[in-house]
Amino acid sequence: xxxxxxxxxxxxxxxxxxxxxxxxxxxxxxxxxxxxxxxxxxxxxxxxxxxxxxxxxxxxxxxxxxxxxxxxxxxxxxxxxxxxxxxxxxxxxxxxxxxxxxxxxxxxxxxxxxxxxxxxxxxxxxxxxxxxxxxxx
Length: 137
Known about the structure:
Blueprint (H helix, E strand, L loop, with lengths): L2 H20 L5 H8 L3 H29 L1 H20 L4 H14 L3 H11 L2 H14 L1
Helix pairs in contact: 1-4, 1-6, 1-7, 3-4, 3-5, 3-6, 4-5, 4-6, 6-7
């Protein structure tokens, strides 16, 4: 695969991971009303995603060192899609939390994407590759 195509795929993966963090923001008031969530519960729902990213980013990095970047990025992309669907179909508070936790775990692939960029680019292309990741945010 050409470098430009690889960078495009990585951009898409990181962009979708970022959507996992941000797409829910305008939904908080509706979720609070629909599920009777307190402001504390809404804050915990938001924090659960970030906490899982914080905890699982190094784990996914180690796994990608052992089995390769592409398989990890493929699995995390599928997991992110599944967690989005699960979130949309949630009918209870615990399902919302589980969906956000799973989304945070599978959305922890930004470090793997950065490592992939470092693996497939030379010195002169690496800045462009890392810029692509930054643009996805």
